[in-house]
Design brief:
homodimer, 194 residues, Arc Repressor Mutant, subunit A, Tetracycline Repressor, domain 2
């Protein structure tokens, strides 16, 4: 039991350190040896926890993707206005990016290095998520909650602002997570509100 | 005289076709031979018009960068409110991306392939442009034209939405350039307006 638990947490550490390394050096620029060194175990014993670098990337990307999907499913069924739903999704993105920046960044950028089957599946999940996000905006427009714009323009304006946070949001800007959340929510929600 | 004019327009064609190829295959994935074939001239005679692939990339990136800088200089000195100034910059970005999509895309993505000196100079121009854009937002906040948010959040929300247009704006979405311009301006300006 203890050994099993230990194995799980070692795997967690491997995934966390892998996300850091992939973010800093890119997926292609990171070797299993680099990763073993960072985690502080023998390269050979890495394979007790994880089969391959590909598997690590899959675990990172699909874990993040599943988290977004779980939240949008919850939000879709919640008893809230469309404004509240879209605001909750914006909040989710900011939270994920500020709390798990390496894994989110790897998911945003290195999914292109997934193997063909995994990439197809990942793209499908992402497309489905975008469609469901768009549907919430569309319904909000129909209900008169949001201004009458092309839904794609609203969707991608929101998503691109959120995805880019990882590229500019740095400690030296002296903006707390809460301030970031507050300001970006104000700009995006006022942007689309009718 | 005529020969000189001919040489200039052939160079123009080379730059345009290069931007297309770099966008489709990446800078690294495009050879001078590919480019000569696309332009319809002998690979050897390419060098009558252009010295190297590096020079082509520099011409593309700095031409686009200079265009943004020329416009922001004009806008800074214009007799307009800060709202009008920021709106004019948003309009400029949408216009550049919809009218010259390949060159803008290459500038956004392949500047990382510039040689070290050119890259340093390009990054300086880009940083200067961002600072000047931020200053217009900051002054607009101080004047009470824009809501009181961290200027970086406003700046990067705007810039990321605009830079990402190239990735999602496709003919099959059936949104005209004018509609894109109108919708994205409405969302971003209402987003930041006080």
């Amino acid at each position: 039991m203890n050994t099993r638990k230990n194995a799980v947490s070692k795997k967690e550490i491997i995934l966390q350190e892998a996300a850091r390394l992939f973010k800093d050096r890119g997926f292609g620029g990171t070797s299993m040896r680099d990763l073993a060194e960072r985690v502080g175990i023998e390269a050979a014993s890495m394979y007790n926890h994880i089969r391959s670098k590909d598997e690590i990337l899959e675990e990172i990307c699909f874990r993040i993707a599943r988290e977004y999907v779980a939240h949008i499913s919850e939000i879709e069924h919640a008893d809230m206005s469309y404004r509240e739903k879209v605001q909750a999704l914006i909040g989710l993105h900011v939270k994920m990016i500020t709390e798990d920046p390496h894994a989110v960044s790897v998911t945003n950028n290195d999914w292109k290095s997934l193997n063909a089957a995994a990439m197809a599946s990942f793209k499908e999940i992402r497309k489905d998520y975008e469609k469901r996000f768009a549907a919430l905006i569309q319904k909000g427009i129909e209900q008169g909650e949001f201004r009458a714009v092309h839904v794609s323009v609203a969707l991608f304006t929101i998503l691109s602002s959120l995805r880019w946070i990882e590229l500019w949001y740095k400690p030296e800007r002296e903006i707390t997570k809460e301030e970031l959340q507050k300001d970006i929510t104000a700009i995006l929600m006022n942007g689309i509100n009718a």
